[in-house]
Amino acid sequence: xMARKRIAIIPARGGSKRIPNKNIRSFCxxxxxxxxxxxxxxxxxxxxxxxxxxxxxxxxxxERCGLDVEFxxxxxxxxxxxxxxxxxxxxxxxxxxxxxxxxQVWLLMACAPLVEFSDLKQAADLFDxxxxxxxxxxxxEYPVPIEWAFSRRIDGGMIPMQPGMFAARSQDLEKKYxxxxxxxxFPTARxxxxxxxxxxxxxxxxxxxxxxxxxxxxEADWMLAEAMYKVKS
Length: 233
Known about the structure:
It is a single chain. By secondary structure, this protein is α/β, with parallel strands linked by helices. The mean pLDDT is 93. The chain has a six-stranded mixed β-sheet with strand order 4-1-5-9-6-10, sandwiched between helices. The protein has a two-stranded antiparallel ribbon with strand order 2-3. Strands 7-8 form a two-stranded antiparallel sheet. Helix 1 crosses helix 4. It is globular, with a radius of gyration of 19 Å. It contains six helices and ten strands; from the N terminus they run E-E-E-H-E-H-H-E-H-E-E-E-E-H-E-H.
């Protein structure tokens, strides 16, 4: 089989409920998915860019952006409960059957319009500096200490998750970080050997500024992301 270095896989299932058609809805005048496609192309990192979708509408939109979808995803990988790792595994197995193998599998999220090609290139450098064995995860810093977190009862009452920590000063607390939900670079062996959703161990963090780490789950997130994009443009 022919060894190729990197594949970028962009999961883009149909049937989004909170924001209908969010993967291809117009964002600042372009289909949402076009932004990450452009960043992937401009990075010049990837031998293959594959959009994994079960939706003919998304496939056609991607093709209008200049990328052919080589094969569709089976319906069982496109429901609300299937984790990402089986999707990645399916794609690399399909390419293996076509005689194409990869050293790295990059998960790029379809709704990541604020990620730039320079972020991908710097993350690739970080991947290489760690010997190609650690998974690089795009992260960002929590805006406030998680020690101050509350849960909220149905009657509106607030329950401190760590009672008494409200009195701690933020500068005295260790910074905490979260998965920014925009990209991850895996060694292929990790994808192949994963079970279920995989493991949350063994990551190296690539730091994204807070303005790029917007998880677009509802209309308020969408409007914030559009505002941030217009500012940086």
